[in-house]
Write a structure and sequence with these properties.
The structure holds two protein chains of two kinds. By secondary structure, chain A is mainly alpha-helical. In chain A, 78% of the residues lie in helices and 0% in strands. Chain B is α/β, with parallel strands linked by helices. In chain B, the strands form three sheets. Chain B has a six-stranded mixed beta sheet with strand order 6-7-8-3-9-10, sandwiched between helices. A four-stranded antiparallel beta sheet of chain B has the order 2-1-4-5. The two termini of chain B are 33 Å apart. At the A-B interface, helix 10 and helix 11 of A face helix 2, helix 4 and helix 7 of B.
Chain lengths: 337, 311
């Protein structure tokens, strides 16, 4: 007990000083270590002689402290504003520590880990399915949306017609969207020969995937257009006047200058789809949503967490990685002589 | 030689440029001047076909522009615009190298050309080559813009209000640079401006546009002495005409034998500046020197005789 409490207290005290953000970061890390140590020590102690079906899960105090320490860490990091490579390094260290912690078995007495232990195969399938839904729909939306954005950029008429339609699709509530897909794809599965054989049906992966792609199109197309149009008008005029073809203007000027905005669109889509893919669990689409809805039906909080925590972690990691990419593709270095 | 023949641009049936013909000699600067909406920019943009003429023809050294693909034509014509239009994600060197790269010049030839141009524009290559446009002053950006337009040794350089965004002192320096570089390279330049002062100062020939028509095309002195229409007279600036006329003549043209008191003027000083010196220092005559050697003097009476319109 004592070393954990000391580490937690020391971490919070370090976090209170304002002068050195590095020290605050270290404080947050120390506090988190203390918190994890307390949880890992507490669980076995509470389970002694409590019977086979007893479960221990962290209480409100744990979650509150976790939030406080995470905020402390985020604040310290934003004060330090590390470069893209430092951030990638920090992310790798955090992920490695997390993997080590989960592998080591010190937390295996916690209820969420026990739920995991009894569902390892299902968890692996759900992870793959969730990644497939989120990244697959992103790739498909990019393959359709990026060329569409280029065409819209060149033709104002098409742009005026298409963007309102995509905006309208974005306003359909996600549950309703998944609902619409069921009769639609059900009909396609029945009517089109061979459609059923490749997995197109009213429920399952296909409708969830399609709904995610439709949701993704607006951010992808809109950011592609915004990115391409961010070229200064004088630079575009000069490119035309010096004899660049349309293709050369796109490749040499408009795309490199718009890349950060275009990637920001993909980042929005990725994070949005990782979250939305949870709803796919409702229509048999698989993914972490399966655990969430099972947990909701059985009022089993640990099962809900088994679906929710990996989703949050995945979304966070994706957002950080995409932010790093956006920064690395900024076309004009930020140094001055 | 650039020959423009009966060129017209109609927008919704109304002429923006109305049947303009003119000839521009090689290695001269022609300044197209007019108010906004006079069609001067449209005329310029029809030469590199950024605007497609409704009728008429432009020939560059005998080749009609309509016979070439647009991008091929434009690579043969330099183009510099107001606000420079540099690519913000390219270094100075890559900006200048843009057209030679499109033309597929070998790397060494491009690098040598970039350094040569930077030298010509008094920008130390070592220091400026790898900078980005955002790291330059307005005057430097504008110089890089003109250097980029000249990089492939084009047959013709088109400039659309190239100095419009510069403050007066930097603008005067940029105009001097352009004159010097045009003489060094023997470039043919067509420049659009709304500023008659700039037109008088830079142009070997001045073309005045009004409501889509070319109303007068001649040397600066002709424009001042014999304005073809009231509009041209107004552009030249009514009461300022004698002063404009004096600004076109160097003192070396009316220098006479004799001596005078006080500080001397250089031989290439304009009569307008000489008049100014006389009035300011209260003298009737000022000595003139060429390269430090006394040439004679210029008198207030002689200046006054020059300022009188020849009519």
């Amino acid at each position: 007990m004592v070393p954990g409490m000391v580490a937690l207290a020391a971490g919070l005290v370090l976090g209170l000083q304002l002068a050195w953000p590095w020290l605050r970061l270290a404080g947050a890390a120390l506090g988190l270590a203390g918190l994890v140590w307390l949880v890992s020590q507490g669980a076995p102690a509470l389970l002694v002689g409590a019977g086979d079906y007893a479960r221990v899960s962290p209480g409100a105090g744990f979650w509150c402290l976790l939030v406080v320490l995470a905020l402390l860490m985020a604040d310290a990091l934003s004060n330090l504003s590390p470069g893209p490579f430092t951030r990638a390094g920090l992310l790798a260290v955090v992920l490695a520590l997390l993997a080590l912690l989960l592998q080591s078995g010190v937390l295996s007495d916690l209820s969420i880990m026990q739920e995991y232990a009894s569902r390892q195969d299902a968890f692996r399938d759900a992870t793959l399915r969730h990644l497939g839904l989120a990244f697959g729909s992103l790739a498909t939306a990019a393959a359709i949306g990026l060329p569409l954005g280029i065409v819209c950029h060149r033709r104002a008429g098409l742009r005026r017609a298409l963007l309102p339609i995509l905006s309208f699709m974005q306003t359909i509530p996600s549950l309703a969207m998944f609902g619409i897909m069921i009769p639609l794809l059900g009909w396609v599965g029945d009517a089109v020969p061979g459609a059923k054989a490749i997995g197109i049906a009213g429920i399952g992966f296909a409708p969830a995937f399609l709904a995610l792609v439709l949701y993704s199109l607006l951010p992808v197309v809109a950011n592609m257009i915004a990115g391409l149009q961010s070229t200064p008008p004088a630079a575009r005029e000069a490119a035309r006047g010096m004899g660049m073809t349309e293709w050369q203007r796109l490749i040499r000027v408009e795309l490199p200058l718009g890349l950060p905005v275009i990637l920001a669109g993909l980042r929005i889509v990725l994070v949005q789809n990782i979250g939305l893919a949870v709803i796919a669990g409702l229509i048999g689409g698989g993914g972490f949503g399966t655990f969430v809805f099972q947990g909701l039906n059985q009022t089993a909080t640990d099962l809900i967490l088994l679906g929710a925590l990996p989703t949050v972690a995945l979304a966070l990691v994706s957002a950080i990685v995409m932010d790093i990419l956006v920064e690395l593709t900024r076309p004009i270095p930020e140094h001055t002589p | 030689m650039i020959e423009i023949e009966q060129i017209t641009k109609l927008y919704d049936g109304l002429p923006a440029v109305d049947s303009v013909s003119m000839t521009v000699d090689t290695a001269t600067i022609t300044v197209i001047v007019g108010t906004s909406g006079s069609g001067k920019t449209t005329l310029l943009r029809m030469i590199n076909r950024l605007v497609e003429p409704s009728s008429g023809e432009v020939r560059i050294n005998g080749t009609p522009t309509g016979t070439l693909a647009k991008h091929v034509l434009r690579r043969r014509i330099g183009y510099a615009i107001q606000g420079h239009g540099l690519f913000p994600h390219y270094t100075v060197a890559r900006n200048i190298a843009a057209v030679p790269e499109l033309l597929g010049w070998p790397k060494e030839k491009i690098n040598a050309r970039v350094d040569e141009l930077l030298d010509l524009f008094s920008m130390e290559p070592e220091q400026f080559r790898d900078r980005y446009p955002a790291e330059l002053s307005g005057g430097q950006q504008q110089r890089v813009g003109v250097a980029r337009a000249l990089a492939s040794r084009p047959d013709l350089l088109l400039m659309d209000e190239p100095f419009g965004a510069l403050d007066p002192i930097i603008r005067a320096r940029a105009q001097e640079d352009l004159r010097r570089i045009q003489q060094a390279l023997g470039s043919t330049i067509m420049l659009v401006t709304h500023d008659m002062e700039e037109a008088m100062h830079l142009g070997d020939r001045v073309a005045v546009m009004d409501e889509g028509r070319l109303v007068q095309h001649g040397t600066p002195a002709e424009i001042v002495l014999r304005p073809a229409t009231d509009f041209v007279a107004e552009m030249v600036g009514g009461v300022e005409r004698p002063l404009r006329l004096l600004s076109l003549i160097p003192v070396s043209e009316i220098v006479e034998e004799g001596s005078a008191e006080g500080d001397a003027l250089a031989a290439d000083t304009s009569l307008r500046d000489a008049l100014s010196t006389c009035l300011w220092s209260g003298r009737d005559a000022v000595p003139v020197v060429q390269d430090g050697v006394p040439m004679g003097r210029v008198t207030l009476d002689a200046i006054r005789a020059q300022a009188k319109g020849q009519r």
